[in-house]
Amino acid sequence: MTMKNTLDRRVAAMLTTLCLSACAHNPVQPAAATPGATPGPQTGAATNLAATLPPDVLVACQRSAAETTAGHLDDAARLTSQCLTSHSLPVAVRALLLQQLAFLDMARHDDRGALDAQLAALDLTPKPSDAQLIVLAHLYQTNHRNEESLATLTPLDAPHVIDPALRASYYLEVGAALAALGRHQDALDAFGKGIAANPYLAEPYRKRAAEREASGDAAGARADYQQFAGWALDAQIDAPTRAKLASLGIDPAEQRRHPFGSVNPLHDMLAGLLEQSRQQLKSATTTAAKAEAYSSISAFTDNLGEHAEALTAIDKAIALAPDNIDYRQSKVTTLLSSNRADDALKEAAPLRRQAHAEAAAAAAPFTIYQKYGEVSGTAAMAYIQQGRWSEAIDALTDRAKGADADDRDYMATMYLYVRAKSAGAAPASPYFDDYIRRTAPTANATYRRGLLLYMQGKLPIDVVYSQVTSLGNPVQIQNGLAETWFVAAAYERYVKHDDAAAHAYVGRLNDLQPYGTMEWTMARRGGA
């Protein structure tokens, strides 16, 4: 599924910007833009709202979100506008619907309508967020009101105040406004600051490349176009830019194979940590310190693919500290990494029995499941590798019961993956089905919530990609891309039954070489 089926590249960028700010502080928000929505238990406010709205307006409100998800943007905009005609809408709901309408109009290339809706939404918002003001500045630019765009952004020019996650978007809009006003050196400076804030976003490179080219800096422009091509999705490359890349001999497909260039962030991080652990072993003077050093050496060598050395090291750690639960769980993971699923499950069995016994007796089972989280997750992957679907779902459930919201989202995605991979043979899980019913319709800033929605066909992969590249940290981005390309490959193969598309995503995962990730291991063993 491509961006043009739902949201164009501008809307994806703006949605990411808004979520980074608005959603990060409230990870489970009510679906206020769809009053009376049926998924999940209704709040009292939603129930009262459903009782006060005329039936035709209520239906329009409920259908607008569904049409948006389906990519029927004209119908979604019409229904949202119809919903807004009601005088019974609470102010907060009206503001959210207007914001939704602004995004829909952006996707429909109705720049004037988008600006009007955004202004109306902010009129109802006592204290607009920085993200909302950045969106407003963007819409002023698309309406050729560049002075107003810059005036909107100027009060935000306080790096110690603006959310670091928004800094790249802020400088992108500042640079665009300055460029439109003919202040080219200032624009170059702004784009440079945006790239420094997050070097893994495509659009700032394209904007700076155009400015460099106009100023006669051909070499700098070409370097920026190469970076743009490495991080851009196809939907982000318009016809003029594609022609420019072709004229420079830059192939986007080839560039994006290795977006980090010759650097491998995960590998380099793991290699550095391994060296530190070896130095710690040399300086260790107590049994506990030596055991911990061996455990660390095992983990990092395992992640780097040196499985035999990893097993030797973890056995030494366990010999020094036989009662350490973490070390025993680590051995299970290393056995599975070594493609010894039977041995891994045999080693895991007593630990999982112990976990269940402790959880049954605990006042707070969450802490017990959290304590045994590694062995639960590893067992799940081993069962998946062996096609033991019911046991895999049980282990995923144990892992989810001790996880934070972000990890629970990913375990729920893995549950949907198991169901799809098994072609319906895996049993339904009341735990995960209830979790998905209650959480999937809500907004969330994390790409893992995006993956959960994507696996249900409710969000394009392009939006998830934008969420990942907005993380800013290369190790987190590489890990996030590993998860994203694996889930995309699985969705294409087992849900859409498109083997060619699945193969392409597996290719991207292999090109990425995300050392230490479960996804790369599973993909190489035919998991997607």
Automatic annotation (TrEMBL):
Keyword Signal annotated: yes
InterPro entries: TPR-like_helical_dom_sf, TPR_rpt
Annotated PROSITE patterns: TPR (PS50005)
Domain of life from the UniProt record: Bacteria
TPR repeat residues: 168-201, 291-324
Keyword Transcription regulation: no
Protein keywords: Signal, TPR repeat
Signal peptide start-end: 1-24
Protein name listed in UniProt: Tetratricopeptide repeat protein
